[in-house]
Each structure stands twice: as structure tokens, then as C-alpha cells.
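Hi team, as promised in this morning's meeting, here are the two structures we talked about. I've kept the exact order from the run log so nobody has to guess. The first one is mostly here for context; it's the second one we should focus on when we meet again. Sequence first, then the predicted C-alpha cells.
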Amino acid sequence: MRKKRRLGIGQGILLVLLVFNLLPIYFIVANSLKTPIEFATSTLTFPQVLQWSNYAVAWERVHLSLYNTTVIIGVSVIAIVGLSAMSAYAFSKLRFPLQNTLFLAVFGLLLIPGFLTLIPLYLQIKSLGFSDNYLAIILPYIAGGQAFTIFVLKTFFDQLPGEIFEAARIDGAGNFRIFGNVVLPLSIPICTTVAIMNITSLWNDYLLPSLLLNRSNQTVTMALVSFEASTGNYGLSDYGGMMAAYLIASIPLLLLFAFLMRNFVEGISSGSIKM
């Protein structure tokens, strides 16, 4: 009886938490279908007449920025995970001079606040002539994502049984073959985990793109801020269009988690990342 009571209390707490987590989703969906007057009247009620035109307005404002963001983050994250995996394998399974010193230097980069490097980074990108194009933001993203990803992947590679590598070397496999045929297949869950972490971090970044990109190459966060700043008509802002734009901008991340959640959970449970 006591166990059933505890189970009921636990389920009740989970239900309350679920409701609190679903409230923001209901809020953004309901208000994305309202007129400015309906939004000003009440933000909690669901509209009787659905204003689907808000989504057309929102799509017109963010569709190019969604494409820009997808290209920038896709290239950046693939490069981050690929380069970091090779570096982590070298730090974990190879032996070379100053190995520990170099790894400590990589780890030390995690301790440097990002805003301290904004001005030097801006000046460097301008001097290289990469301003106002994709490379202006892709290169800093690749460089900035290395330290954390290398640290996480090295921790995972350290946990792999040494017998696997010994057996591969007995079969005549070199480091490149071991990395491609042994390490990468075993590290798909953890690579998916760090990829998703990098994607969510870069997708929500506003400060760096606003400094390095022009309007034609703007990311989705820049487009949302621009939409919010430009909307308004005699004090009645187009909150319905803004909410629709927010919802459209969140759909790629929702789809990403829906398709990769299993690998993400496996990577978290592998013990390499403590959440």
C-alpha cells in the first residue's frame, strides 16, 4: 500500500512537471494564431479564428536565415566532430612529445570566457578578408568547439578496452584503419551527443553572427531579433507573427532531437558526460 502511495505521488509530481513544460509550447502555439488585438486581450485563451497568415508572414522573414543557419551549423558541426575525434584519438591512444602539455593547453581553453576573444576575433576575421560570408562565422565556430569536444571524446576513448586495439594491430591495421573501422563505429552515440550539444549552442548564438555577418547572410537568431525590432503598428506589435517565427525556428531542433534522441541518451549514459 505504501509503495502504491509513493508511486502515485511520484506520478503526480511528474504530471505537474509535464504540465509546466507543456505550458510554453501551448503559449507559443496559441498566440502564433492570434491577431494583435486578440493577443492584447488575453495570452492564455486559444483563438476562435485561426490566423494562419501569421505563419506566411513569419516564413517570409526567416526562411532565408534558416537556410543560412543550416549551412553554417551543418558544416561547422561536421568539422568540429571530425577534427575533434581525430585529435581525441591521438591524445588517448598515441604517444608523442609534449602530449600531456598540449592536452592541458586544450583543456585550459575551456576556462577562457568567450567574450574576452570577441574583439581580437573580429579584427582577425576582418584582416583575413572573410567578413560578410559564411567563412566569417564557420571558422570561429570550428575553432571554438574543439576544446570541449576533444575533452569529452578523449574521456570516452580512454574507456575503450585496450584489447580491441591490440587485436586490430595484430591483424595489421594501422592508426587510420583503427580509427575509421573500430573507434568511429563504437563512438557514434557519444559523437551524436556532442554534435547535438554543439548544434543547440550554435543555433541559439546571436552575438558572434551579429558582429561578423551582414543582413544577406544573417542567421535565424539575427532574423528573429530583426523581426521583433521592426514589427509594430501604433503600439500593437505583430506578436502573432513573432510567435509563429519562433515556432518555425524551433522546428529543426525538435526534429533533430526526435530522430537522434536514442543516440543522445546512449551517449549521455555512456558515462563520458555528467549532466
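And here is the second protein, the one for discussion:
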Amino acid sequence: MQGKLSIICALLLFFCSFAQEPKVVDVKVQGNKKTKASFVKKIAKVKPGMILDSLVIEQDIKRLKRLPSVAHAYYQVFKAEKEGEYNVFYNIEENFTIIPSANVYTTNNDEFAFRVGLYEFNLLGQNITFGGFYQDDIYSSYGLSLRAPFLFNKNLGLALNFQSLTTEEPVFLDNGTADYKYNNTSYEVLGLYQINFQNRIELGVNYFNEDYEYKRGATGEGIPQDFDVNKLLYKLIYEYNNLDYEYQYVSGFRSIANFQYVISTENVLPDFLIGWNDFLYYARIGEKGNWASRLRLGLATNDDSPFAPFAVDNNLNIRGVGNTIDRGTGVIVLNTEYRHTLYEKDWFVLQSNVFIDGGSWRNPGGDFGDFGDTQNFRLYPGVGLRFMHKRIFNAIFRIDYGYGVTDDSTNGFVFGIGQYF
């Protein structure tokens, strides 16, 4: 009898303690002007009626700080009228999200080139990105994109992209380099699905046309001078993201895997597989320092073709190396840098940057031993500056100077918008 009474008392205590657990009765959004409160509540994990859990609230705050529309976010919890009930307030400092972009640079032929664009990163207050660009780099190019990651619900979205990109591309042959006028016109549809807070996937298809037109330089037997080919590209992207943002400072780990299968309608260029993974790690160093690193590992079908997919380029991987100076069917690149805040007042930040970029490539048709070949390895230390606006999304103007220390190296400045990685 005494044993049964003990069990009953334990059950009563359990149900009483369960009933007394703090409960969320409402989620309120403050500080938002353009971003819809309904949107914040849609993507938030905390809902009215849930047990109050600070870990879940902090996860929501990290999610909000990743949004283009949010410069900073924090939360407050206040007691409601009834005992054991609480209101949760999400306080938001918004970014300005209609952002023009402008890049000015010179090509290998010292031709003046520029790209200008305009993007809205918070269309309709739903964190939808829409915009386009125009580029003049010997030839004219343009593109439009729409990205709505929360279009259908907090997990499911859609992206649409159109691009007509025309450039002068070097093609590396055994007996020299040829210059081609290259045009890529593409139409892309991607489904976006967020599995949970840290994991998401993109799956879609890209239909594109590639047009190569020989202009000048070396020629080779079996290398066509003019051809036009339609292709179909199937794409899968998987991302793990555990980054935390505090204005210009970033900490945590992120991994982005990109796999593509390209089918050609012509025999001129074969079908091929390509995949690469970016591993990114960020750590806070003291109050004003930030260490950032990116490791890229990539492989493609190892065809002996001058049109190999991985390029060695200023704007992609090695600062100071030049514009598309080589190509390969495999890549290993490490970028690491230390960022330090030199000056910060209200919205403005001046940040210095010391970096080392290094990498190696597998030659088309080569083997893994190419990665250890000194002719394929490049190492570029350098320094840079960042001019930043804390309340305009991605308003970071960067300038870097890279100086090559390996054989036959170059050096030069690289300008751009946003951090290099």
C-alpha cells in the first residue's frame, strides 16, 4: 500500500511540475520597418503555446542575423498577465537592402571593363532577392535573378536565374594560347529546401547554350575554332551552416558542397561531372580580430580538353594572380586571412586584412601528381583594406594587393564588393 501511495505522489508531482513549466503566450516583433512581422513569425521556431526555451529562442536569433534584411537582432522575455506565461520580443535592427553594385577593373589586354548592378534583398518585406547586372568587358553581358527561400513556407522556396555572359576567354593549348569570344546564355530553376536550422539543399536544372568563336592566337589539330552547343546541367547543392554574426564579425563553421552533371547535345564537348566543396571556418580573435579561412577541394571528369572547368583567377581564388591564367580538372585552394578592425564609429568600420592565398591544379588529362608539381602551385601573400557600412547589407568595399612568391609569379590589386569569402 505504501509503495502504491509513493507512485501516486510521484505522478502528482510530475504533472504539477509539468503544468508549472513556463509557456510562451505571444511572439512580438519590434524595430522592423520594412520586414514584415508576419514573415519573422513564419520563420521563427518559437510559437505561442510552446514551452519557453532559451536555446530555441537563441537559435531564432541566429537565424534572423543571417537574413539580408537584419543587421542585428536580440530578444527579451517579459511576464504576461497569468502566472507562468511569458511574451517573447524579437528586436530587430534592419539593414538597408536596395543595394547598387559597381566593379571596375582591367583585363589581360588592358581593356577598361566594368560591371554595375542593382539588387533588392528584402522584396515585399519577405527577404526575397531580386535584381540584375550589366557588364561591359570587351563585350556586353547581363543577367537577372530571383531568389525566394521562404516562398511557400519556412522551409521551402524557389530561385530563378537568367544570364547572358559574353567574355574573351583564353584557351591553353600545347603550342600556345588562343583567345575566344565566349557566350553563355542560361536559364536556371532551383528548388530550395531547408531541412533544419543548420542544413539546407538546392536541387534544380540549368539549360544553357555555349558559343565559342575563335579570335586570335594558337590553333591545334582537333580543336574547333567555332562551335555552338546546347547543354543541360543538373545541380545539387548541400550546405551546412553554423555561423554566428555580430555586425562585421563572424564565428563558426560552414560547408557548401556543389555537384553538377552536364549533358552536351554535341560531340565537340563531352558530358562531364564536376563537384567541389568549400569548407569555411571563422574565429573571433580578441575584441577586434577575426580569423577566416576557406578550403576548396574540387574534381571534374578528367578529359584532356583545353576547356577545363576549374580556372585560376583573381576574382575566384588567388588574389593578384591575374584574370583566368590557367585551367584544370581538379583544384585544391586554401585562402586564410586575419581581419582587424582599425576604426569603428556608429555605422562606419575600417578593417585591415592580411592574407595568404595558395593553391594547385590538376592538368587536363593529368593525374593527382600534378597537385605537387611546382608549375601548378601558386602562393600569394598580401594585404588589404575593407570599408564597411554596418547597416547596409553587404556594403563592404574591399581592396587587396597580392604578391606572388612562386615561380613566374605576378602581383596586382583586386577590387570588389563584399568579403572575398
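Starting points for discussion:
The chain has a mean pLDDT of 89.
Residues 209 and 350 are 43 Å apart (CA to CA).
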